[in-house]
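Lab notebook, bench 4. Still working through the backlog of constructs that have no structural model yet. Next entry is a single chain of 346 residues. Request: give me the structure tokens for it.
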Amino acid sequence: AEAFAQYAADGVERVVCEEKHMGSRAVALVCRDADVARKRFGVDGPTGSLYTRTGRPFFDDASVTETILDRVREAVGEAGLWDELETDWLLLDAELMPWSLKAQGLLRSQYAAVGAASAAVFPGALAALEGAAARGVDVSDLLARQRERASDAAAFTEAYRRYCWTTDGLDGVRLAPFQILAVQGRSLAALPHNEQLALLDRLVEHDGSGLLQTTRRLYVDTGDPESVQAGVDWWLEMTGRGGEGMVVKPLGAVVRSGEGRLVQPGIKCRGREYLRIIYGPEYTRPDNLARLRGRFLNHKRSLAIREYALGLEALDRLAEGEPLWRVHEAVFGVLALESEPVDPRL
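Model written out:
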């Protein structure tokens, strides 16, 4: 509800709530063929690229990248988007799943380690305390506390496991595109999200490989209490069955407030159980929640808007065919801002 209230305060009447996919952010540059990639981007051999959010190749094996690009390219052609958008290349913002596909190291070193340690420690600790209680020792408070901690640790393990599944090659891999950023001759960053999603629905519909996944969405009128409640209920239903949450975006994409400033392009609303992964197994304790509610958001919001403005500039330069060093000027500005320290509780 706070996200809807914030956009209403900014003068945004209509928003779209998009399902938040739990994977790794990926930017896909898909060219019609290798000749287009060579002429437009100066690369010999690849037909595009698949990058992480920090500009690194998503896969070490170039053949895996090409296979994914082939499948997306086939869907673009079948959907008729090359001709409709009058382009020989397009840039997609997407989520590549499962999360475990790219985050194996993080899972092993951080999340799985916590889960394994808790599974090893708590059964013995609880058994000892229960034995002491059976002998008449007053350990009721300590036992209750450790049972709570064991339950929190189990919930933490269950939370991260939801976003991991086994893949065999590209079997089990899913790519969920949620925005076409640019095509030949124009940036599509300002294209309203309902029009964006309509194009992407066609892309998914014409994918015969099973790679592409649609993004569920709900449109909300920020001035209508019933519509706002429907948005809240949709989020509760989604997170209640294990989903990460939603991203609320102005329907008009690039929007300015009454004062002329850029409005935040999106607000992430994550679910209670997903946030255990971010803040730790015991974050729902009242004292921890009180600490988290004291987060300082202004700096992060300011950085986000500046990164967004630089991203829009980079897309304009790319679409207009400017030299890549000009595009990279804006891109490196975004990367520099992302290295700025922010409140670690965010």
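Notes after review: The chain has a mean pLDDT of 90. Residues 75 and 207 are 5 Å apart (CA to CA). Flag for follow-up if needed.
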